[in-house]
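[#protein-structures] MJ: dropping Amidase here for a structure pass
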Amino acid sequence: MTLDRAAGLAESARALAEGETTSRALVEQALARIEATQPSLNAFRIVRAEAALAEADAADRQLAAGMRTPLLGVPVAVKDDMDVAGEPTAFGCDGEFPPVTEDGEAVRRLRAAGAVIVGKTNTCEFGQWPFTEGPAFGATRNPWHPEHTPGGSSGGSAAAVAAGLVPAALGSDGAGSVRIPASWTHLVGIKPQRGRISTWPRGESFQGITVNGTLARTVADAALLLDAASGNHERDPHRPAAVNALEAVGREPGRLRIALSLKPPFTAVPARLQPEVRARVLQLAEQLSRLGHVVEEADPPYGQIGLTFVPRATAGIAERVAETPFPALLDRRTREAARLGRLLGGVPLRAARRAEVVLQRRIGTFFESYDVVLAPTTAAPPPRIGAMLQLSGFATDRAMIAACPYAWPWNVLGWPGVNVPAGFVNGGLPVGAQLLGPAGSEPLLISLAAQLEAELRWHEAWPPQRAVPDSPAA
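AK: finished. structure tokens for Amidase:
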């Protein structure tokens, strides 16, 4: 028996545990859907068809023997910045990359939970931009509107989940790269506390601003994947106290003080919240008020936080460029960012790292008055495919800031945030809003997101079939 594409992560795991289907059936179904949509959506860089089927057969033997782990036999995908043994990690770059020999820690933990990794999803070059396009793989498209981007840099993971190719996927978030594509594909996207999901074999990714996170159609599925992937390598520098994300889904959040923050944080160029996106965020604020929460407009004291982001981001790119086997194939904007990163990699980088504690302390005082911040995830709906691909570095930065000025401060702080769907604008383009909290606040944010989901039931909406042809196996 196969399951409908609407079956999520938890439902797939339950059906497998109760013998209603097999891992091979679910993996075959996922592979058929990937194959059917690859020409139109192009969500995957690598499809592990043979290996995934072998892993599914092994999972079925374990299930038959009575073994039970949280995701035993369930197909999932991971972004192509994560190491999967036997596969290359190109991270959106052009050229032939050698296969790696070991799983990264997050992938290792997914396997320990029983998941079958069906493939690695597309991402832009080194995850720099809010679109998923490039000469290495073409353009990944949005299942809701294929002429538009699903966002980035975890656009392949978002497209795969939104289209129902897999029930959930891992992405990474260095300036909103989980939350932005979740917003633009009508998904739940969890950016957890720094260190919650290991980035090993890198103790820190992009000087600590990038973390691994989860994308799913429901809060429960995103939380389940978060629990499965969470944990640390023994050499990780950031090791937050464990939380139970899935347990928080069923818990009432209580009556909360919520700050509605519509003003973009510090930006070097103008950024304006588009009225149609603002209207959707205000609707969510009104829904939270109806649920009994106290919602009032207030902005965290960000100050000049942007000055601490650029040295960390560009120094991180410089590190990646120094490691790549084919630097001549890199986008000119990548090479420009790496040059800036080398310039900023000394005193400015050290000052930026030191400033984090000061920023955490100052913005942390805001949470003495409020429990949660509600903010737009993006200022605009998803742009069209190709809109930013050929721009200069400066023009790309301007376009990114104009569209996505809201997400990156929480990467500097290292704190958790959750994107929730906020509805549709301009003829069906998805947009979202962020629930943001202080260190270790994933359970509260997840509980609040689940409360909203129970009212709004966003997971019941699907992309039109014209955009996402289903597979014969479905």
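MJ: nice. The chain has 15 helices and 13 strands.
AK: one more thing. The first helix runs from residue 9 to 17.
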